[in-house]
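note to self — DONT lose this again. spent like an hour looking for the file last time. sequence + predicted structure for the chain T wanted, 706 res
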Amino acid sequence: MQHKPLFHLCYDGAQYTGCQFVFEPMPYPPHSRILTTAQLHWDRDTPVNEQFADVYFSRDNGAAETDYVFLQQNRLPERWHNPQLHQFTIAETGFGTGLNFLCAAALWQQAKASGRLPAAAHLHFVSTERFPLAREDLAHSLDLRPQPDWLQQGLLHQYPAPVRGNHQLLFPEAGITLSLWLEDAVTALSALDGRVDAWFLDGFAPARNPELWQPALFQAVGQLSVTGTTVATFTAAGLVRRGLQAVGFSLEKVPGFGTKREMLRGVYRPDPATRRLSWPPQDKPWFRCAPAATAPGPVAVVGAGLAGANVARSLAQRGWSVSVFERHDVIASGGSGNPTGITFTKLSVHDTPQNRFYQAAYLHACRRLRQLLVDAGIAPGEDWDFNGVLRLAFDAKEAQAQAELSAQQYWPDELLEPLTAAQIQQRLGLETTLDGVLLKGGGWVNPARLCSALLDHPRIQVFTGAAVGQLQRRKDHWWLDDRGPFTAVVLANALACRQFDQTRHLPLKPVRGQVTYVPASAASRHLRHAINYRGYINPAREGFHCVGATFNPRLTDPELRAGDHRWNWDQLQATLPALARQLQPPTAEQCAGRVGFRCQTPDYLPVIGPAPDIARYHADYQDLSKGFLKREFPVGPNLPGLFVSCAHGSRGITSGCLAAEIVASYLTGEPQAVDREVLGAVHPARFLIRRLIRGQAAPPEEEHQA
């Protein structure tokens, strides 16, 4: 049961009645994530959408149409001749065959190759699509209109299953990110956070697709634009012209492409008197940030575990020079120190922000980490294998949850495969009476090897045995003790994040966990899948299986406990007795394993985003406790250049990748990788806002913030 808020004043939900905020629990309804793919036919070499009875691009020359309508009318060849340009964002409505993206990406790469743009410049292309092409149709379209191999193969290789939400496709060698939102444009853009430099308003004609061309779309376009943002659209329809003008665009009609008489292009020039700078409470302005456009500079990352290594990689790929400071003598020594871990998410049919975050994180990690490890030359089966994670229906509650997933058709078969006990037995070669599901694309990995691959980048420098005692802001830069200056700092050091005055207020708590190392047998070495139940077991690595893991929030003992080894073994034996019979149970004399302390929050979500300025939050939002719903509030006041990625608990392999993209987008001003509701659910200020709404005094440690 979750809390559905009436006024959306906090993540948990709150309804205003009289002079109080009270919580009214309401369930999030079941919600399938599967989208219907586009139904189309081919008229010679041109795809025609049957629902809208319209072509995806010109029958004469689709690439020439894209070049004229979108690239030229947004003045991209001219704007991309700028040695000072480090970040540029394009957003479009209607991904279709991907032609607009491919043409823009090719032009971007040409500009970089010719020296017109800096080598480290980064293009972020945002696109929305309610009816995505099936993979086979996309492949056919790409074959007919060839683009550079690195583009076509990269797009086809990463092209997602038709699942709602954002799918980030990375082209790191070209400095390009494609955020493909599989959702209707109005929903996706209205929930997006960030800034856009150029708009490609595509999609089928207004007369054929009226659901797209509505006031809410133009309002979202205006809100994501900044002064100087350009727009181009193939249509010159009056409702489009009036809609764009109403939100601040200055427009002109120009000749259309081919036989089309007219089209529109324009520039965003809002009236400063009407430009929105504050929002009502239901828009949660405290979780918004003023649009940033920070040029790459030196950045410090504190912590070289999964969270820190991912952040370092995301920033380095955007041209930032990254210094990583790790207090231990080797990387991945704390919560990232287990010999193996899995990419995993607990699927649910309920569309909560928590579920959306972890499911998006899972899909992103599966795509990104597989490619990273392959590029690093690490063969599958050596230190990783993403051949699927088997989740067993180990009790009645889990069996019911898996049945709901199948009944709701929550994910397509290419991502989630329900399996009977007989099918599992055939797949594992082990007798079992339990059904389950296979999460395709996930798997197991050695965290230290993964961190090493993430940190292997020419713009990343790692300092081990380098503890940081104090953060200080001097003028416009940060210093870590006597190390600096840095344009920005990212704290990715788990529980140690609380040692700093600026983040001492975060309610982080240690949760003890213990894993058991069980020697592999000749028979158990055939296990190829990571298996998740009430515990988990991974395939053998270096002669043993990693079996885990206990969850003890009240224990602080760093020593191995025989009782915890017994618990890990008992869960395996109760769930997979046939596998347990192939292994020797741990004994008091031969108990190998590891103790670690997960960093978690009271709501079991990670902390990702800008560090709040505590004093200013109290000053700006103190009226929340009084129920002032009619007034508007400014955007969240944050400490400039200080960010956090921590409290990933036991899911750092899964959530660390997406968290890194969120932090990088905050720093560069790019559109975010998740919707605004999810951003608020993981925002570092969420705990502070809840206390302000309840009228609670600040904890004493907040008074010490620098």
